[in-house]
Amino acid sequence: MNFQEYDLRAEAVAIYPGQGTLTGLSYAALCMGGETGEFQDKLKRVFRDDGGVLTSERIAALRLECGDVLWYVAAAARELGCTLEQIAEMNIAKLESRKDRGVVHGQGDNR
Asked: Which of 44, 78, 88, 96 is most buried as measured by Cβ atoms within 10 A of its Cβ?
């Protein structure tokens, strides 16, 4: 599946408050953070409960959480008036520019 198809299918199941408003963007951002926290919690359990061994069950659970994060990233992109593909293209362009200028390491978005 490509980003364009994902965007269409994700939008088809998008039911959340305030779509198309600041409330919709805020909701997507808050949920993105929550899902990221769920991913982190599942990863924590690898160390706490599994002795640092990444089992196939944990991998499956982490993949599902990645999908949830992706869904909210797509929703946030939609709320910002762009597509997931556009977000990905902007991100790669930014990272390639940093690499070309030798500023991959460091801090701040505008390096």
From this structure: 78
